[in-house]
Amino acid sequence: MRKLLKLAVLAMFYSALPTLLWAQISVTGTVTDANNNPLAGVSVKLKNSNIGTATDAAGRFSITVPSKGGELEISSVGYKTQTIKANSNSYALSVKLVEDVGRLDEVVVTGLATSVKRRNLANAVATISNRDLAGTAPAQTFDAALNGKVPGALINANSGAPGGGISVKLRGVTSFFGNTQPLFVVDGVFLDNTATPAGLNFVTAAARGGNSSNQDNPSNRIADLRPEDIENVEILKGASAAAIYGSKAAAGVVIITTKRGRSGRTRVSVSQDIGFVKARKFLGTRTFTEATAEDLGGSNAARRAAIKAEFNAAKAAGKIFDYEKEMYGQTGLTRNTNVSVTGGNERTSFFFSASQKDEQGIIKRTGYRNNSVRLNIDHRISDNVKIGVATNYINSSADRGLTNNDNNSVTFGVALSSTPGFTDLHADALGNYPNNSYSSSNPIQTRDLMTNNEAVDRFMTGVTLDAIFQKSEKSITRFVGRGGFDFYNFKTTALFPNELQFQAVNQGTSIQGFAKNLNTNFILSLVNNFNASENLALTTSAGITQENGDFDNILNIATKLVAGQTNVDLGSALTATQLRNKFQDNGIFFQEEATIMDAITLTGGVRFDRSTNNGDAEKYYIYPKAGVSWNLTRMDFMKNSFFDNLKVRAAYGQAGNFPAPGSKFAIMSIFNIGGNTGLLPNTLRGTPTIKPERTSELEAGVDFSLLKSKLNFSFTVYEKKISDFLLQRPTAGSTGFANEFVNAGDLRNRGVELSLNAQPVSNKDIRWNTVVNFWLNRSKVTKLNIAPVQLGVFGTSLGTFKIEEGKSATQIVGTDGNPDVAVPLGDAEPKFQMNWFNEITFLKNFSLRFLLHWKNGGDNINLSELLTDLGGTSPDYDDPTKNGTSKKGPDRLAQFFSGSARGFVQDASYLRLREIGLYYTFTNMPVNFIKGLRVGISANNYFTSTKYRGYDPEVSNFGTGFSTNVDVMPYPASKRATFHLLVDF
Amino acid sequence: MKKIVNIYIAGLALLSVSLPSCKKEIGSLNGPSLEQLSKNPSRLELNTVVVGTEAGMRNNLDFYLDATGVIGREMYRFAGSEPRYTTDLLGAGSSTLNNNTFYLTNSWNSRYRVVKNCNILIQGATNSTSVSAAQKKGYTGFAKTIKAYELLLNLNLTYINGVRIDVENPDNLGPFMGYPESLTAIAGLLDDAKADLTGADIVFKLSSGFGAYTDAAGLIKFNRALAARVAVYRQQWAPALTALNESFFDLNGSFNNGVFHVYSTGPNDQLNLAFVGQNQNGEIRVAHPSYAADILAGDDRIGKATLRAQAASQNGLTSNRDVWVYRSSTDPIPIVRNEELILIYAEAKVQLNQLPDAVVAINRIRTSHNLAAYAGAVTQAALATEMLYQRRYSLYFEGHRWVDIRRYGLLNQLPIDRAGDDVWDRFPRPLTEGN
């Protein structure tokens, strides 16, 4: 076998050699825009080769090509691509690029190793450039920066905690079990996006009250990425675009390409952001009177008298506190520094960046720090062989506080919900905190003494080898190999010292978790371009893929600690748990693309996949895809018509979603007593026959451009069917198990995406680009083989999700008077979403950008309000109800006690100015070694209009799974303002 | 031509490098497989299932004690973050017991999880080729005893809604049986277990909670103590006395002789979650005011509900006494103990109209709790009332009050704290059981 491989490698280089030996010529030129301003960073590539360079700051380029000459492809994002002939007579070429408002010339990845121009694309693929991502007002994390920018996506921040935590759903719900998130691929490396809990549940017991879902508020690992390093993000929203990713693509694929080096003069860029973060909103607290304070004592005369005395004493001493502001009122400082260096020569180029971000949260002692170093190197071994390496090291640390649901009244919000402002929680002169007589914890003490830290060390490397080993007049064949690894160490530290009020029993708790994850993957493929004739071009690709994952998490819980100590061995009780997951997936794919008359593009492909997570690990599942697009304006009969560009398109594809690792095994768990070792069956019943769920998606659309492509319009409809969807349903308790995975039924999503892209004004003084997107999705459970299942949340009396045939997949049901009957109360799916992005360049040097995001409809289950009502601390507790017969707090409680969950299901619509930024670019540099200088100010989430009665309509107590939209005392959302300085040397 | 050959060679090479590294099956990484333990387990493997069974009996037991304690008006459970202890369980306003809420499902599922383990143990022991016949009987006798007890706890919750007895095949569960039928089946299981344990060889280790009852003879005594309880539930008074005589019942013995759940901070062990310190706030258990109001002067059992520094209240309910039955997080919780057996003896004697014997037993309880000897009417009715009083205070927060008062049809005598509150006689069947 080895011999064969050797032969193959030899053959490859042998075929590459002759071109190396040929004589070469040098071609130079300048690239400018329509107004003769030089364009920097424009890609100049020799067609059908791996030879390429980029323009420098003055728009100049120089490229060496074989003496027989060839065609140069000049391309840049936002401009139409031009092809020019180059031969020995070409020197000082002058190229003028025309703006491409509709981005029709943008190249979009459609296969594992192939791409097409947007004008020929059969799918609606969203592309987010670096400028769209981070160029206006940088968000907290990379994934938060996508919010409001992707038509077809429902992106939701789980909480405002530093370090993020974001849920992304593309084109509706695609799965009900853990993984509803898309696959993230960075430079060919499949990223791990696990949210690993820190074991806070041990202290909060949040999962005791009937819901086993994770409520630890962990961040997900995609947040580690630095938006500054990203060149662009492509979002394959469904199976029709992503089928070639097979069993990992059911929820869509997010392809992230990082910045690459550019040959030419070495350029150094330094950017510095400095700003602050504040609570987006305070809900307020209840103002007590002697009578209302007394009522907190209930019917017990002694208790009433004590509270009354406490209130009067506090009032007399002027010691009535606003604990909400004390807890969430910190103005956190944020700073972000990034240095990037890029340069190289014709053969080798590099991109290096180092950055540090440091942010404080709105709660004291919370914050986030991220250090990142990236080195991307591209090297051309010969004219035909190039290799690229992208490496990234990340070190981050997030202090996230203690928020969200709990059953021990220890999280900040839950403890505050029953704590009135007239009781004093502050430490005395000796540093001793009083016990909170209204709750089992003193939240001020908890905040000041506890630690909940997540620390990540992560290393990612992606390697790409691109070798042309056959080239002729009509055909070119290349080998493309991509692969890499993603490794991280994740350390969680949750410390609850002995002094804490609620540590009376445990006498100090130290929970330390260590997670190690290694993902590796490779894609080896052969790609052949065959130009059969003027009018027919074929691209054939085939290859194999493999993905491996190895996750290992050890959680140590020590209690009864030596005072002031945190090491897990410095306590008298220690419990450890370990969770391991491992998988290997293998795929084989084949794809054929045909372009006819540069107008009709046909694509067909198939992928075969197997996985060790499937019940039958050896069985290959087949995922086909097909697409067609017809650009009518390229046809003779449509030339010079009203339309500059008119394309109709349709695509179909299938993709899968593997079962969760381990879901096929019935295993035993450890339960000891009296020093003896024991086993009990795990509550999850294994399903040995489990198979992947399958998504098939059909999308169709029309795209057109008018008025010299100043107005671009895109319309897409899709239908996405998920068959054999996986459901972790509760089993009959009498089986001895609590849950099992089943392939339970079929689900459908239908939706519409509209996009309008225009340049209404473009003259010397003002240039205005505007983009409006509109999208909506409707889901329906079309078949359910099992009885309706209540999913997530806390039961019908508090509102819950319910999977039911014929109903929306995200419907919310609850009791409404009759305790035995759950009636529909709402739906988490928005009616529609819209965004409006604007970029206005004026007075030559000013640029104003803003993004408005409107989510219309979509309900949340707001249980925070219930908790403050029960604790008698809601700000509007004493306000009269509309009909004036009662007070709001008691009225809401009466509704709840009469068995109605209706009050908790609240409309979470919002209109939000997500980002606004104003930048000034200097044209006259103060000193000549500075080549570029830009300053700006920006704001995030500064304006939100919503009727939702919580801190923020974006919330999720259960993290990134299916059950988003549940509000239980979250870390409140924040708003950010930042000053920017960017210098190029 | 040569180039096309190259393509093929390269393609083949690609496949050949990748294929050998293919793994087809990784296997379970996070625990032993359930199948192995029921197919042909070794003695050591069977022993771990025994220990797991004993350990698992404690899972979510605090929910059981809370549910029976709150509905039986022994105590209130106040929780800052969980209103349903004071709404659903007490029937506030129009709220009722829900069939898919933690107070029922957590405890219900945990009991059946142990039943499952017992079934694995019975199957495993039967199939095992590495244990003797007498040893097999030891495993099955233990498993059936525990299975019966766990089913009884669930039956106490659902009452006339019944339980499933036959749950060996998760894909084909047996039917729910009515209350009397379920009790009969449980009694039958206990009798089977006793037969198995007779002459059995016990080769497994139990915790110190089983005290002196870890050998075959001891386990029979434990088994019979449970049988006596089931017998009085079935109003089979004479058999109750027979069972008592084969148990560790001792009219003059220590009240706390018996079998207990024990707790420790050891790895993967558990703490007693029914324990809450005194004078805590937020998440607490406080005595129902009637506990102190109804107690006889001088009764030392007032020590099970100590006065709080500050009264606690939630949702219109107030109490100034903490529940103080379990006084540390490693205090044991009784499964069955001699004090209950003495009261079972008293009950059977009252019902069999052997009143002087009943008075002797009752006085044994009374004098030990600092009360004068019984001086009331020596009639069946008066002594039944007296017996229920003693059960109420002797077995406080051990999960008995609600069941006892229900057995005697006296639920309507439980105090109602708020207008519109209800006293429930049973939990619904859990939603997941398909009703």
Which short descriptors sum up this protein?
heterodimer, A: 985 residues, 5-stranded mixed sheet, 48 strands, 49% strand, B: 435 residues, mainly alpha, Serine Threonine Protein Phosphatase 5, Tetratricopeptide repeat, two-stranded antiparallel ribbon, 14 helices, 9% strand
How far the N terminus sits from the C terminus of chain A, by CA atoms, comes to 52 Å
Give the CATH level 1 class of the domain at 1-206 in chain B.
Mainly Alpha
Unreliable parts of chain A: 1-5, 7-21, 209-213
Query: Pairing-aware structural class of the strands and helices of chain A?
Result: mainly beta
Taken as a percent bin, the fraction of beta residues of chain B is 5-15%
Task: Give the overall form of chain A.
Answer: globular
Low-confidence stretches of chain B: 1-5
How much beta of chain A, percentage-wise?
A: over 45%
Distance between the termini of chain B: 72 Å
CATH topology of the domain at 1-206 in chain B: Serine Threonine Protein Phosphatase 5, Tetratricopeptide repeat
Rg of chain B (CA only): 26 Å
**Major sheet summary line of chain A:** 22 strands, antiparallel, barrel
Mean pLDDT of chain A: 85
The number of helical segments of chain A is: 11
> Element order, helices and strands of chain B?
HHHHEHHEEHHHEEHEEEHHHH
Largest interface: A-B, 119 and 113 residues
**Percentage of helical residues of chain B?**
40-55%
Shape of chain B: globular
Estimated structural class of chain B = mainly alpha
Radius of gyration of chain A, taken over Cα atoms and rounded to an integer in Å: 30 Å
Query: Tally the helices of chain B: what do you get?
Result: 14
